Amino acid sequence: MELSYPTEAEAFRQEIRIWLKENLPTGWGEPGFELTGEARKKFVEEWPATLYAGGWICATWPKEYGGKGLTTMQGVVLSEEFAAMKAPLRADFFGDTLVGPTLLQWGTEEQKKEFLPKILSGKMRWCQGFSEPNSGSDLASVKTTAVLDGDEWVINGQKVWTTQGHHADYCFLLTRTDKDSPKHKGISYLLVPMKQPGVEVRGITQPDGTAEFCEVFFTDARCPKDNVVGGVNNGWKVANSTLAFERGMSATTGFRRFEEEYKLFVAQAKANGKINDASIRQRLMQYYSKIQILRYNGLRSLSSTLAGTKDFGVMALGASNKMFWSEMHQSAMELGLDIYGAYSMLVDTGPESGTWPGAQRDKRRANYPASPMMSSFFFSRSETIWGGTSQIQRNIVGERVLALPKEPKPAGGE
């Protein structure tokens, strides 16, 4: 496998490194450096504008829609350098990573001109309205409806696990627009304003006191007729594009957070003597090996993308990758508990920021003193669920990639 990047890509890498050095706070990336208090608040408030001024938000988008028109290879290098420095790159995950690319693929010119500039500038925040109380993995069974009334859609129904729904200005919503069609063919993808009568958002309080997930209730809420993306009753295809962007992002950078975690585990095992346990050493090497598999699979995906390859192996890789890393990480966090032992229950176990996702959630918790490591352990339990459950991923591999018989439906099912 060729691991070297083209000369022009490496030259672009140097450009990114210089920009980061000039724009990140002095000392960023050095051992022991951490922003706290007002300095951290100031950085969080100002960084999106700094990114926007540099042109790095959605830099692979075409120039006519506000991007830099970067090539795929340049976009990869950009992501790698930001990841290496642990510098935030996204302004609004749902906007610039999910609905933005979906609009570029499926949207009308009017929709692109209306929404893309506001996504780029950070003036419009988004949430995703896919899951419902009884429609999670079986997304095609959504019950939320939209009925055309003159020049507007009238929407009724409920969505759940809507991340950041209480902050969003718009929701990209899957809704049933033809109840008489087969369930995959009667769905439309709508762009719905959240700040209007008929939209109620309720936070779902988690055990750690946070409520970043929400329930959203639509009662005769409205959106313009022209806010359908990809055509009426074609929402299933459009939604699958959005899910592909979610599952396919960070092909060559996703392994990094696991690599950092592995290093922490090794350091702790050496410090407390657990490294002398043969079973601990074996599990550490299994984790390391899987991280390298994840890394090489990312490079394979990149090579296939650059070559425009669409073969059986590429399909299988894309369908199985999310299942692979999420199950890998659950096992890894169990390993972490065995290495840290009872110490993992203490509130100061783990880095204060950055390495574990739990470190950031831990700062926002209310009356729930979990360490960053324990918070990440809890979060890892959800990783085989969000973005498509492992069971569904296995069905995709078996049915769509290996062409095996479909899973039998329960008696009385559709």
Brief descriptors of the model:
3-stranded mixed beta sheet; globular; alpha+beta; single chain; 414 residues
Task: Tell me the helix content.
Answer: 40-55%
Q: Span from first to last CA?
A: 46 Å
Strand runs, count: 7
Distinct helical segment count: 12
- For the largest sheet, list the strands in their spatial order: 2-3-7-6
Poorly predicted spans: none
Average pLDDT over all residues: 85
Shape: globular
Portion in strands: 5-15%
Radius of gyration: 22 Å
Order of helices and strands: HHHHHEEEEEEEHHHHHHH
Main β-sheet: number of strands, strand sense, barrel status? 4 strands, antiparallel
Structural class comes to alpha+beta
Report on this model:
There is one protein chain. With 414 residues, this protein is of the alpha+beta class. The protein is built from twelve helices and seven strands. The strands form two sheets. Strands 2-3-7-6 form a four-stranded antiparallel sheet, with no helix packed on it. A hairpin with a 2-residue loop joins strand 2 and strand 3. The radius of gyration is 22 Å and the shape is globular.
